[in-house]
Design brief:
This protein has 15 helices and 20 strands. The protein has helices at about 5-15, 55-70, 80-95, 100-110, 115-135, 170-185, 200-210, 225-235, 245-260, 285-295, 315-325, 345-365, 395-400, 415-425, 440-445, and strands at about 20-25, 25-30, 35-40, 45-50, 140-145, 150-155, 160-165, 185-190, 215-220, 240-245, 265, 275, 305-310, 365-370, 385-390, 405-410, 430-435, 450-455, 475, 490-495. Strands 14-15-16-13-12-17-18 form a seven-stranded mixed β-sheet, sandwiched between helices. The relative contact order is 0.13.
């Protein structure tokens, strides 16, 4: 894309306004204390907005409002068909404001504008429409209890839900929680990451405009140790849904136990293996998807294929092709539609990734590509695609989630070794198997301790399939009808017949 196109995008940015106040009840409000924090763009360090630094007072207010909205049934009391129509209007409004939302997303967390538009916003709209359309097509159950009684099994909304969303896909992951939580009739309080609050705050106003009643969807920006902690500890919150690091996920579990034993669902990242066998049908396709599977969104993806497990007979050729694909990924200003790798979300995350690159070198892995920050925009954080070869399974870069554009290449000799290496982490979010042998594909796929296993593909799927992990990757599932389980209670109504 030409410089003129980049300049045109910058001109669109110049016309944006940034709302940083909390969205409580019927609209935007400052914090009780007036405290804010400065939100800067990772693209170039520019100040975007002063954002409300919510704490216990704002969370208490949001929860009380949400509880009142739930109890008076302004939303939960609507028929599924009525909620469906409102959520469809919400999806339409998101779609008609997609350009603004995509720009906010890019400015907020540094992802390429092309991805914000074609991936994040597209999938958000699809998600909201899918759950809206599902609502009036879900039936309760009758148990086979015989002639003397009727056993009815009904699903009800759980009540007040707190959802803590991460900074890598703020809008898309908000959608994964809004769709089923609102669809079931709950009141929902979103707590966006402090690194990326602006797009979610804008979303709340669109929800109100669509007809979602006051108090049903609220947004409390702020820091995790303040607003997030208060939400997870609150004894009038019935369920908490968290996507983020394992360290914080464990705290969420503790907070639930310390308060009211609220329902907890977690998605806490991964260290996903991408296994390529010697009989892979298309090495070019495997290399293409391996590269995009780890370098997309600057590697800030929980399901990133950050471990490439290659059979020793194809390892060198595969890595060369991955390098070739990575070499075409332009690192640049995220506002340029030609950019494929944008800015790291913050100085802190950039430093974390660079520390892991240093650790990889110290552990004896061979740095084949990248490894050093590049200058794109003064004040921004940019790390190019980085590849380590000769990685051993017990190295930290093979065990710990880096959350950056860093690929670790490991080799194996046979199927048993591949399975052992693949499962040898505390995570279990995703895995992939590349082979032309259907028996190998199913045998290895079933052996993976992962919530998703892709065969001859990487990180593909659909809103109709569940997403979540084994082991320390989390508890529960996003996407699909299974996500409704996180935001509902199952009740038995037993009717004795005279």
């Amino acid at each position: 894309m030409s410089l003129a196109t980049l300049e045109a995008t910058k001109a669109r940015v110049a016309g944006l306004s940034f709302e940083g106040r909390a969205f409580l009840g019927a609209g935007y409000q400052p914090t009780r204390s007036g405290e804010t924090f400065t939100k800067c763009s990772p693209i170039d360090g520019r100040v975007l907005a002063e954002v409300a630094r919510c704490g216990e007072a704002e969370v208490d207010k949001a929860v009380a409002t949400a509880r009142q909205a739930f109890e008076d049934r302004r939303w939960s009391g609507l028929t599924p068909r009525a909620r469906k129509q409102i959520l469809l209007r919400f999806a339409d409004l998101i779609e008609s404001n997609a350009e603004e939302l995509a720009l906010l997303e890019t400015l907020d967390m540094g992802k390429p504008i092309a991805d914000a538009e074609s991936v994040d916003l597209r999938l958000l709209v699809l998600c909201m429409r899918w759950y809206a359309e599902a609502l009036d097509k879900i039936y309760d159950e009758l148990a086979p209890v015989g002639d003397g009684a009727i056993g009815m099994i009904v699903r009800e909304p759980i009540g007040v839900v707190g959802a803590i969303i991460p900074w890598n896909f703020p809008l898309m992951l908000a959608g994964w929680k809004m769709g089923p939580a609102l669809g079931m009739g709950n009141s929902l309080i979103l707590k966006p990451a402090e690194q990326s609050p602006l797009s979610t705050l804008r979303l709340a106003a669109l929800a109100l405009e669509a007809g979602i009643p006051e108090g049903v969807l609220q947004v409390v920006p702020g820091f995790g140790e303040e607003a997030g902690r208060a939400l997870a500890l609150h004894s009038d919150v019935d369920a908490i849904s968290f996507t983020g690091s394992g360290e914080v996920g464990k705290l969420i579990l503790q907070y639930a136990g310390q308060s009211n034993m609220k329902h907890v669902s977690l998605e806490c990242g991964g260290k996903s293996p991408n296994i390529v066998f010697a009989d892979v049908k298309d090495l070019d396709e495997a290399a293409e998807q391996a590269a995009w599977g780890v370098f997309f969104n600057q590697g800030e993806v929980c399901s990133a294929g950050s471990r490439l497990l290659a059979h020793e007979s194809v390892r060198e050729e595969l890595v060369e092709r991955v390098e070739a694909v990575a070499g075409t990924m332009r690192v640049g200003n995220p506002l340029d539609p030609e950019t494929r790798v944008g800015a790291m979300v913050s100085d802190e995350q950039s430093a974390r990734v660079l520390d892991y690159i240093k650790i990889g070198k110290q552990e004896g892995a061979s740095l084949r590509m990248g490894g050093a920050p590049v200058e794109v925009e003064r004040g921004g954080c940019y790390i190019p695609p980085t590849i380590f070869d000769g990685v051993k399974g017990d190295m930290r870069i093979a065990q710990e989630e880096i959350f950056g554009p860093v690929l670790s290449v490991l080799s194996f000799q046979d199927e048993a070794e591949a399975i052992q290496l693949a499962n040898n982490t505390t995570y279990g979010l995703g895995a992939a198997v590349w082979t032309r042998d259907i028996n190998t594909a199913f045998r290895v796929g079933k052996a993976m301790r992962s919530g998703s296993v892709w065969i001859n593909a990487y990180d593909t799927g659909d809103i109709s399939t569940p997403f979540g992990g084994y082991k320390q990757s989390g508890i529960g599932r996003d996407k699909s009808l299974h996500a409704l389980d996180k935001y509902s209670q199952v009740k038995t109504l037993w009717v004795a017949l005279g």
